[in-house]
Amino acid sequence: MLVLGDRLPPFIHAPCYTDERLAPECGEMGKHQCLPKRLAICASLVDMFYSRTDANADFVWQTISSEGQRLHDEYKSLDSYGQLAALQAIIIYILLQAQDPETAERNGANALLLIMIELFTCLTESIDWDTCDSTETPDRHHWVLRESLRRIVALLGLVELLFEGLIPPHAAQANPPYKNFRATPLPSQRDLWEARTNRSWRREQKLYLSGRTSHEVLTVGDLLELDNAGCFKNTWNNQHAYSKLPDAATKAYDHLQLPTVFMRTLLTIATRQKGKLTDILAPEAQLCARAAGGHNAGHSIVANGVSYSFHLLPSGLVNPNCRNLIGSAVVAHIPSFFKELEELEKKGLSNVHDRIFISDRVHIDLDLHVAVDGLEEIELGDRKVGTTGRGIGPAYSTKAARSGIRLAEVFNEELFESKLRRLASGYQKRYGDLLKYDVEEEINRFKTYRPKLRKYTVDAIAFMKEAQEKNTKILCEGANALMLDLDWGSYPYVTSSSTGIGGMVTGLALDIRKIGEVIGVVKAYTTRVGSGAFKTEDLGEIGEKFQERGREWGTSTGRRRRCGCLVDLVVVKYTTDVNHYTALNLTKLDVLDTFPTIKIAIAYEDPETGEKLDSYPASLDVLDRAKVIYHEMPGWNQSTTNVKTFEELPKEAQDYILYIENFVGVKIKWVGTGPDREAMITRF
């Protein structure tokens, strides 16, 4: 934050920018001597901070804390520009606090957060937003005000990410505010800021905007690349005060159209065993969306003592204030859609018919596809995939062959019938009498469904565009694990859609710049449904023990899941490299309570060369030959069921969690310790 010569940081303005009478004098001096006193003091304190020693660190922080309190005491008497300067100074002090939290806390710096919230609330209530929102080219005075506000909220967004644990102290230290600070929504080019007259300012603005190719905006993705470690773990004791911050930031965002780093949109992508975490996150979501897959996968959610099963519908329906969308890459079985809605309604969920929408671009999973599914498995013989028999594969096959039927086409009765008859005829030629299907019966069923479907059908592009522009909190659900992904899974023993983050983005038309979190959900041990590669499978007593203790059978099919050694970190690391998780949820830790030894797969080795494989292999032949390298850890032999904090866990369980975390390189934010909704540890 140092003021170097006459060059000011982009989020500090000087009065000479708003009063042309001061500009010549400052320009002649070569420095902005008119810099507000509050920011001049701030610059000096920043200089002191970066020059501090162990001997004077307490004094430096006592001085910063005193200055923060002084700003708090006088801010109500200041005009808007004075409040802007005071708020910028406070935010800068908080960013410094990230680099030295212990000393700062010891010397009273915790009050800075409360002061910042109070100042920002006061400022947002006093600003003339209509002037700031004007689309006309502003004069220099209003432009500086607008840009100062933008940059303040940029800093607020950075501070908020610090609180959420996305930036650790050492990352803040490596990127101090004055060093290559890039979180500026609009340019900070010297010529533009320092134009002496309105005329010259407009000329420079026009030249700059015409030649600009991109914004230099610090995004959430950039921040996550710094580190995913937590910070401020014990610094902020006043959680009530912190809860006010997002509302204030959102208020400013609504007016200023800030970059995505400040978005409070929750785009959570849970790709394995997601039910419980989805249940926990759903109450905060305003929109819950399914991106791909069909009614072949499912999970159960217990809310208020009632168990709800979800297969095709998004589980956000449990939240009475949440809208829900079935995205464009889903294949929708319409009879199951209505049946599932009816079951949820019978169990007491309110207004379910008013809170569910379907993209008009989804492909229809016909009963014809269901009939064909089993026949294709018979054809494969010993190489069968082990599908659920729900028609998912055939539905995606007709989609890829460009002969599928979209929901939009259902409303054109003549087109729907002709396409369905053509599909049925093709399958009839292939399977003959083996195909047990009545095309007339399905046509008649859709005569009943057609008028009912209209109220749920939306243009998903417009629907999602509006939601994202309004900063809606969105929870995105994955239907299957990444190892069932059509491109990245253990092919050919996969499902027929993209189950990872790529499928989420395309299936829901997500703006990738607005993705806040990507959460990978992994069991504390390994399971699989259906056929296919399972390198660490245990067919003996241990596998059966996992099945019984973990209740390992599918919600949709009731099939018992295949179980293996404890967590296969080769697979977890591979899925992390594909999906780029920002946090992990480790589930069912309590299932391991009775195991004397914890066995973890950490590498695959080529038995012929003795070399470790770089990653999960694409070739099943290579996978079959590979030898699994295990790491063993002592078990804890005591109950962890319903434990609520990490510190309450046995040391061996803590070590197990930390080992996974360090191996994968992603923080484990949640740990499941039982089937109940409340049995979840939230670490940061």
From TrEMBL:
Q: Its pathway? A: Purine metabolism; AMP biosynthesis via de novo pathway; AMP from IMP: step 1/2
Family statement: Belongs to the adenylosuccinate synthetase family.
The species is Trichoderma harzianum
- Tell me which domain of life the UniProt entry assigns to the organism this sequence originates from: Eukaryota
Q: How is the cofactor bound?
A: Binds 1 Mg(2+) ion per subunit.
Keyword Kinase appears in the UniProt entry? no
Spell out the HAMAP family in the cross-references: Adenylosucc_synth
Q: What cofactors does the UniProt entry give for this protein?
A: Mg(2+)
Active site (UniProt): 299 (proton donor), 399
Tell me, how does this one assemble?
Homodimer.
Q: What does this protein do?
A: Plays an important role in the de novo pathway and in the salvage pathway of purine nucleotide biosynthesis. Catalyzes the first committed step in the biosynthesis of AMP from IMP. Plays an important role in the de novo pathway and in the salvage pathway of purine nucleotide biosynthesis. Catalyzes the first commited step in the biosynthesis of AMP from IMP.
Positions of substrate binding: 555-561
UniProt main location, coarse: cytoplasm
Entry's Gene Ontology cellular component terms: cytoplasm
Q: What is its EC number?
A: 6.3.4.4
- Cite the binding residues for Mg(2+): 298
The places in or outside the cell where this protein is found are: Cytoplasm
Which Gene Ontology molecular function entries are recorded, alphabetically? Answer: adenylosuccinate synthase activity; GTP binding; magnesium ion binding
Instruction: Name the positions where IMP binds.
Output: 296-299, 388, 402, 480, 495, 559
Protein name, entry field: Adenylosuccinate synthetase
